[in-house]
């Protein structure tokens, strides 16, 4: 049986569906380690256990299974400073830039491991359900904003080339982005290499500039983010990724959620093709200690309001 052929995602209990991805890197005795604060057996694994410099694997609820990630920003550069971000930028980066050739070699090795079933032979995944170890996508992501990578276009070309070699079953490429640079020429050129099966996951965590300033602390405006999402979403369908944290023990104000839903409706009316809205919360240990996880019932209410106002498909993770 081909382990890279997608299957329907198995139904998981709420506690495991809400546990997502990985903890944050720390530096100890000159080595990178990751401390997992969440006990779920599939979703709380150290990210660097393969020993790669740029390519890692995670079992992700939003990916609905195995995601192979490319750390486009080993230097931790980002235009946002989100309250919920797990990246500790006070710790010096172990790599200053993405080496595209090394990344491509690591990607091929990791794909071979994933598609052969070799991940199950690694201690961390002995007890992981088989369906969760099936490859869902290769993600351009990492410790910062991927589109800030100086050799972004070369990296996209390299990943697309690995896929075109035909040594592995077709895999989907996903760009996870805060959308601040989607209008730049080199980013647009990179997106031209995407197929219709590939995806863009664009961040939208707020409906007002004030709340965005509080949550994301961005180096750009909300209007810039909305404009860039619209630019790309008129060209191809996008997925909106929205993280709502519990901040200082407070949930997002009801009026903010209403404005957020209205923003999505505005994008849709302006011609944005929005395939899905991902509603989730902070599940990884954040660098800022005042950030926590929203209750499932609150996330469900947000998703329901998105559906009522915009008519878009919204799912809670």
Percent in strands: 15-25%
Helix content: 25-40%
CATH architecture: Alpha-Beta Barrel
Count structural domains.
1
What is the average of the pLDDT values?
Answer: 86
Major sheet? 8 strands, mixed
**Number of separate helices:** 8
User: What is the C-alpha radius of gyration, as a whole number of Å?
Assistant: 19 Å
How would you spell out the order of helices and strands? HEEEEHEHEHEHHEEHEEHE
Span of the ends, CA to CA: 29 Å
CATH top level class name: Alpha Beta
Strand order of the largest sheet: 3-4-5-6-7-8-10-12
Structural class: alpha/beta
Q: Give the overall shape.
A: globular
CATH topology: TIM Barrel
- Unreliable segments of 5+ consecutive residues: 1-45
Q: Kindly state the number of beta strands.
A: 12
Can you describe what's shown?
The protein has 317 residues and is α/β, with parallel strands linked by helices. It has a single domain, classed as Alpha-Beta Barrel (TIM Barrel). The protein contains 8 helices and 12 strands. The protein has helices at 14-17, 100-116, 152-164, 185-191, 209-215, 222-233, 254-269, 296-310; strands at 25-28, 31-34, 55-60, 65-71, 135-141, 173-177, 199-203, 238-243, 245-247, 274-280, 291-293, 314-316. Strand 1 (25-28) and strand 2 (31-34) form a beta hairpin. Helix 3 (152-164) runs parallel beside helix 4. The longest helix has 17 residues, at 100-116. The chain is globular.
């Amino acid at each position: 049986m081909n382990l890279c052929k997608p299957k329907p995602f198995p139904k998981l209990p709420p506690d495991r569906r809400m546990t997502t991805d990985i903890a944050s890197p720390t530096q100890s005795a000159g080595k990178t380690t990751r401390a997992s604060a969440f006990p779920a057996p599939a979703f709380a694994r150290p990210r660097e256990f393969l020993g790669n410099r740029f390519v890692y694997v995670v079992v992700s609820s939003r990916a609905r299974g195995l995601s192979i990630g490319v750390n486009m920003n080993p230097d931790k550069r980002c235009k946002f400073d989100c309250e919920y971000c797990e990246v500790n930028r006070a710790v010096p980066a172990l790599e200053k830039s993405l080496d595209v050739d090394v990344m491509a070699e690591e990607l091929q090795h990791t794909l071979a491991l994933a598609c052969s079933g070799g991940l199950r032979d690694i201690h961390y995944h002995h007890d992981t359900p088989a369906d969760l170890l099936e490859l869902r996508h290769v993600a351009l992501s990492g410790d910062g904003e991927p589109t800030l990578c100086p050799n972004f276009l070369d990296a996209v070309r390299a990943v697309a080339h690995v896929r075109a070699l035909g040594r592995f079953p077709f895999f989907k490429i996903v760009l996870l982005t805060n959308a601040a640079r989607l209008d730049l020429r080199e980013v647009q050129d990179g997106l031209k290499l995407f197929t219709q099966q590939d995806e863009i996951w664009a961040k939208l965590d707020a409906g007002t500039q004030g709340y965005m300033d509080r949550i994301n602390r961005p180096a750009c405006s909300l209007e810039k983010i909305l404009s860039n999402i619209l630019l790309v979403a008129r060209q191809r369908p996008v997925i909106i990724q929205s993280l709502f944290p519990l901040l200082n023990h407070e949930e997002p104000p009801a009026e903010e959620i209403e404005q957020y839903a209205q923003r999505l409706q505005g994008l849709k009316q302006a011609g944005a093709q929005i395939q899905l809205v991902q509603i989730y919360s902070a599940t990884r240990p954040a660098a800022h200690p005042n950030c926590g996880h929203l209750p499932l019932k609150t996330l469900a209410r947000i998703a329901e309001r998105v559906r009522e106002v915009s008519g878009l498909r919204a799912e809670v993770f």
